[in-house]
Amino acid sequence: MKEQLVSIILPTYNRSELIKRCVNSVLNQTYSNWELIISDDGSKDETPAVARECAKLDPRIKAKINEVNHGTPSNRNIGLSLAKGDLVFFVEDDLILFPNCVETLVNTYNSLVSSGIKVGAVVPRLLEDNPISHINADLHKKEATAKKLPFMFNKWTGEVYNNYTEDFNEVQETITGHACCLYNRSALDEIGGYEEKAYKGTYSREETDLNFRLRKAGYKFFFQPKAISEHRKIKTGGSRQSNEFKFYYYYVRNHVIFLVRIFGAKSLYMIPCYLINIGLRLLKKLSQ
């Protein structure tokens, strides 16, 4: 059977120093039937030039250079609009794929689908060599680890606590995924892709919004710990806010928007619970 075409979408912005190592990890994949779409979002540094250089390395690589900055959700949709594959794998410019990552994700997807499961996405394990600390970091790890889950959902605050760095030995169904999943292309088309206008600043929650809309449409998510990527996070470029106040402002703002969009009337009690919860954690952080 012929391998399915996987469209790997790499949105980027002002990250010229990172793109090549991500692209090289794609070139080293054991799975060969892929296309890589690099979508530069109006970068002000050398990112467009580097993207064009990468496109010369292999005919499967394409560079889309946006003249203006559209923002992360819109840029992801731009990449999606150019994709030709039945499967779509969103990656980030600070991600390095292990050689069998794509092959493992595709095999897992096909195995689940052949069992009659309506699969929305398969979620790879992400190793973080430089986790960026914020007010949820310890809570995420503690809550998710205690229940041996890659993701855990708080029904009162709508927060998702993650532990996707762990190896749980086998595939397991999970409530959501992170920003770098292998998606069923037709499922993404069905729900209209990423919401482009609601989320601002750091653009946090746009991927959770997408995933929860897929769940509402009846699609399921599965965590595959044997498909591994290394997330070498950095604090500059992309959509990161260097100003800590702005970071927390957009972090809170976007989560409130997420609650309203996804949970409707339930957000009337979820928003106060969330604001109280995060307020207490901020006070604890400031007192340290």
Task: Write a structural description.
The N and C termini lie far apart (59 Å). The protein is built from nine helices and eleven strands. The chain has one domain (6-287): Spore Coat Polysaccharide Biosynthesis Protein SpsA, Chain A. With 288 residues, it is α/β, with parallel strands linked by helices. It has helices at 19-27, 47-55, 72-82, 101-114, 137-146, 185-191, 206-216, 244-263, 267-287, and strands at 6-12, 34-41, 61-66, 87-90, 95-97, 119-128, 151-153, 160-162, 172-174, 182-184, 220-231. Strand 2, helix 2 (47-55) and strand 3 form a beta-alpha-beta unit. Helices cover 39% and strands 22% of the residues. Strands 1, 2, 3, 4, 5, 6, 9, 10 and 11 form a nine-stranded mixed β-sheet that branches. The protein has a two-stranded antiparallel ribbon with strand order 7-8.
Topology at a glance:
Blueprint: E1 6-12, H1 19-27, E2 34-41, H2 47-55, E3 61-66, H3 72-82, E4 87-90, E5 95-97, H4 101-114, E6 119-128, H5 137-146, E7 151-153, E8 160-162, E9 172-174, E10 182-184, H6 185-191, H7 206-216, E11 220-231, H8 244-263, H9 267-287
Helix pairs in contact: 7-8, 8-9
Record keyword descriptors for this entry:
288 residues; alpha/beta; Spore Coat Polysaccharide Biosynthesis Protein SpsA, Chain A; 9-stranded mixed beta sheet; two-stranded antiparallel ribbon; 9 helices; 39% helix; globular
What is the tally of beta strands? Answer: 11
How would you sum up the global shape? globular
Radius of gyration equals: 18 Å
Integer count of domains: 1
Report the span from N to C terminus.
Answer: 59 Å
CATH class bucket: Alpha Beta
CATH architecture: Alpha-Beta Complex
Spans where pLDDT lies below 50 across 5 or more residues: none
Q: Write out the CATH superfamily name.
A: Spore Coat Polysaccharide Biosynthesis Protein SpsA, Chain A
For this structure, the CATH topology is Spore Coat Polysaccharide Biosynthesis Protein SpsA, Chain A
Sketch the major β-sheet: 9 strands, mixed
H/E series = EHEHEHEEHEHEEEEHHEHH
Mean pLDDT across residues: 91
